[in-house]
Specification:
Helices cover about 75% and strands about 0% of the residues. With about 130 residues, it is an all-alpha fold. The chain is elongated and about 65 Å long. The two termini are about 25 Å apart.
């Protein structure tokens, strides 16, 4: 369980790093910036709230909860991967690399959520 939660927290932190990179280099008047700290804080809180169900579901050891958590993580990984593909067409390399790393972390986290902590019950065990 510690490994699952660690990887989900790592993916949340990498998402926040991506938000910081996006705020450091705004591309227009309608993007996130540090000039409006209230909106930046609101975006960070929203990203944490989006990732919170995945974190809560990974705490439980039942397979149905872990599958639900992995599905949420796969959806996040796919969206970050497509964002990194779109950003690869631009000249903003740090955000492209950060979003690609975030997608990799989310893919690994989803796989670990499904693989680690599996309890196999032996039906022939008679104690």
């Amino acid at each position: 369980m510690k490994v699952r939660i660690t990887f989900i927290i790592l993916s949340i932190l990498s998402t926040i790093v991506c938000l910081f990179l996006a705020a450091m280099h705004p591309t227009g008047p309608n993007t996130i910036t540090f000039e409006q700290p209230y909106l930046f804080t609101l975006n960070v809180i929203m990203m944490i709230l989006v990732a919170l169900p995945s974190l809560v579901l990974a705490i439980f050891d039942h397979m149905s909860f872990r599958i639900s958590s992995a599905i949420l993580q796969f959806l996040g990984a796919i969206s970050w991967f497509f964002l990194s593909l779109i950003l690869s067409l631009t000249q903003f390399t740090p955000f492209t690399v950060a979003s690609f790393v975030t997608s990799i972390i989310l893919f690994v986290s989803a796989i670990i959520t499904l693989a680690v902590g599996s309890k196999f019950v032996d039906k022939n065990d008679s104690h």
